[in-house]
Protein 1
Amino acid sequence: MSEIKAGIIGTGGISVCHLEGYNAIPDVKVVACCDIDFEKAKKYAEKYSIPNVYADCKEMMEKEELDVVSVTTWNAAHKECTITALKGGANVICEKPMAMNATEAEEMMKTAEECGKLLQIGFVRRFGKDAEIFKEFSDDGVLGDIYYAKATYLRRSGCPGGWFGNKAISGGGPLIDLGVHVIDLSRYLAGNPKPVSVSGVTYSNLGKNRALGAEVAWDMENKKRDEEIYNVEDFVSAMVRFENGFTLSVEASFNLNCKSDSGEIQLFGTKGGAALSPKLEIYTDVAGRFVNIQPAVDVGFSMDAFNDEMRGFVDAAMRGKPCRATAEDGVMLMKIIDGIYRSAETGREVIL
Ligand SMILES: NC(=O)c1ccc[n+]([C@@H]2O[C@H](COP(=O)([O-])OP(=O)(O)OC[C@H]3O[C@@H](n4cnc5c(N)ncnc54)[C@H](O)[C@@H]3O)[C@@H](O)[C@H]2O)c1
């Protein structure tokens, strides 16, 4: 097959994971990149030897013939950049969250269908080794029917700063940034059931002072903390009910008076349970005794998942393999997120 041409829209932090993923695939070449911060894009292009560089993704799509494009901008630009890339003839992987809300996400999915192109969503946790092995256990019937999951992604003080705290650009706080990962992973591991209702609460008691004053590991060059707007929630707790009776309880925070940062996903089935993060462990019974099983090889989530995600995307877009994180999955997630924010505002359960 001839060379597959890739482009990147938004040359910030996470785009490097996409770029390295493409570079690890022998017949893919990243030939163009673009960022509204043109100086930043130029430096990036120089650093990573990308021959063509643009400030506007429309111009990039007009001048280049790209097979695959990564949309790695901030959240408010996902819809516009994704639609531009799809209409420009490329298959697209758009970072999570898919969009600012479900209405935008549906428009993106519809555009992909109309253009006959693939739109994959950056649910990288689906490509973790832990998820893969969990699926093998689950498909083998070790867990029985999975009916409940508990997912947490808690940071004591960890807003990434900059636009992440600005609702007009991010769409929200830890729910849309962190919760999206663990809600999606739980749903995926439970077999992608359809959500039917949500009930949630959000709190904004600590955020601004914490985010501005704390020593956090997120103070990257382009995320200047001193000039930021901070108007997102700092904690969310929610319950999501699914069509098949499966229920998920989720908590996520940028700021919370907890002992330390933590994250765990536990799933509970009729024959066994499991925990992912930091390591995969299975809880079941054998010969009348409770046993806790760990795979002999250490299995957790690692950054290798990004390479697997990008390979999966290129295989699905160009080689007819199934897509593991579809636009439909992205839309479902945005419906859940919209519903949780609405429930928190109204104090009532929201039917999706
Ligand atoms: N999958 C993961 O684990 C993961 C991790 C981090 C971030 N993300 C997601 O990746 C996205 C980017 O996050 P980041 O940390 O790299 O942010 P970032 O701020 O480092 O980079 C975003 C870049 O997008 C550019 N941009 C904004 N609008 C644009 C437009 N219309 N056209 C071209 N460029 C534009 C900005 O100038 C900036 O350089 C976000 O959606 C975030 O949620 C995912």
Protein 2
Amino acid sequence: MDATQWSEESKRSCLHCGHTYSASDRYNDIHYTCRRCASPAVFTAADQKRSFEVKKNYIWQSRHLCPACHAEWVQLKAKDRACQARWTEDRRLLMQDKEFMRDWLQVLEALPTYDSRKQSSMKTCLRKLLNQRSEPKQRPAPASTAIDAHHPQPPAESSP
Ligand SMILES: [Zn+2]
């Protein structure tokens, strides 16, 4: 273990609790159960060294996913980011694209099974858009209301 190679954030966390590490300290294999598929996995000493000293990950970051689920999670996150980027660019067009929205919704619904912290308001928004009954062409719905429905304005009133 070479604590001098840790990220600044990791080093600070040790100052905080008063614990010091020396070069003679060793990482120990950490056995855990994958949160998603419940298969046993090991965060090996070598993996920890690579993670904390080379990739500069935070040392208190713990693993919850087995390597296979972790790889899937990374892919899903990448897809989510790509969808988000397209959405930001071309929302008006994509709101008509049910296939795109269904795809993205699938990604958003899958993500929490990997990472419980991941909550997305986009999920609710997409569900709403997909469940909208298609209006007859003669009676076009006002376009602006649906677009900003998930970003409600704060009340304009102010106290005197
Ligand atoms: Zn797994």
